[in-house]
Design goal:
Length: 199
């Protein structure tokens, strides 16, 4: 598919050791999808592939282990972060990648750090990894084809659509909504509005 599969075969083997078969396949698919989107949007394909490949590297670690990797990243969790365990792995993943693997590229680290929640003022690379995670080959939720199609035409439109769905779904289930996700949604809405006005 691309030269990076061979270049990063060591990380591929590491993922096989650390993750379940499903999570490993998902990680490889996200890397490939991120690579495809990076080509469309003239972004750094290698960084997109690498961040996509490693984005869930700590997903299946227990929370105590993840907290050690979070400390490696130099972060202290807020009370909401501690109560929202679904966001742990994006932070601990960045810590593992930096502290254990020795990858210090801030663009790659940030793409992993925010691949679940998003945040305001996202970079193109961050949006690519966020959307690659939602639209990888094995994904089969109801609106996945819509998000896939949108992501190939406009990152902002795809972000807006997917964030609307995520926030609505969390609210229906009475689950907490992480502040960065709300900031991301508001940022996307405002940015999309400004771009539409400039057409």
């Amino acid at each position: 598919m691309c030269d990076y599969e061979k270049k990063y075969s060591n990380y591929n083997e590491l993922l096989k050791e650390r993750l379940s078969e499903y999570r490993y396949i998902h990680s490889v698919n996200v890397a490939r999808r991120a690579f495809e989107l990076a080509k469309i949007y003239d972004e750094n394909c290698e960084k997109a592939y690498l961040a996509g490949l490693l984005h869930d590297i700590t997903k299946e670690d227990d929370y105590e282990t993840q907290e050690k990797y979070i400390a490696l990243y130099g972060m202290t969790l807020t009370s909401l972060e501690k109560s929202s365990k679904s966001v742990y792995h994006q932070i601990s993943g960045a810590g593992y990648i930096k502290g254990v693997l020795g990858i210090d590229d801030e663009q790659v680290l940030s793409a992993v750090r925010y691949h679940t929640t998003g945040h305001s003022d996202m970079t193109t690379l961050e949006m690519i990894v966020f959307l690659a995670d939602l639209t990888s080959e094995e994904r089969s939720y109801n609106d996945v084809d819509t998000v896939r199609s949108l992501s190939e035409k406009s990152l902002l439109d795809a972000m807006q659509y997917s964030l609307s769905f995520v926030i609505s779904d969390l609210a229906k289930k009475y689950r907490p909504i992480y502040p960065d996700t709300l900031y991301c949604y508001n940022w996307v809405i405002e940015k999309n509005k400004k771009e539409s006005e400039n057409l």
